[in-house]
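Sample pair:
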Amino acid sequence: MLECCKTVLNGVHADKFLFRKELIKSLSWLNAKDQQELQTWVRNHFYSEHADVIEEILNTKYNFAS
C-alpha cells in the first residue's frame, strides 16, 4: 500500500490541491510505521515544492491510523 501511495503522490504533485487531498488520504490508509516512512519520503521528495502543504498536514492531528 505504501508504494501505491507514493505512486499516486508522484502523479499528482503538480497540483497542490490534489497533492494535499491525496497526502491526507494516503496517511489515513497506512499503519503507523508506514505513515512515518511516507512522511520522510514526502519531505525528501516534495518539500521544496509543497513545504506549506506538507507542514500543514504532517503537523495537524488528523484521525490517522495508529
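Residues 12 and 19 are 5 Å apart (CA to CA).
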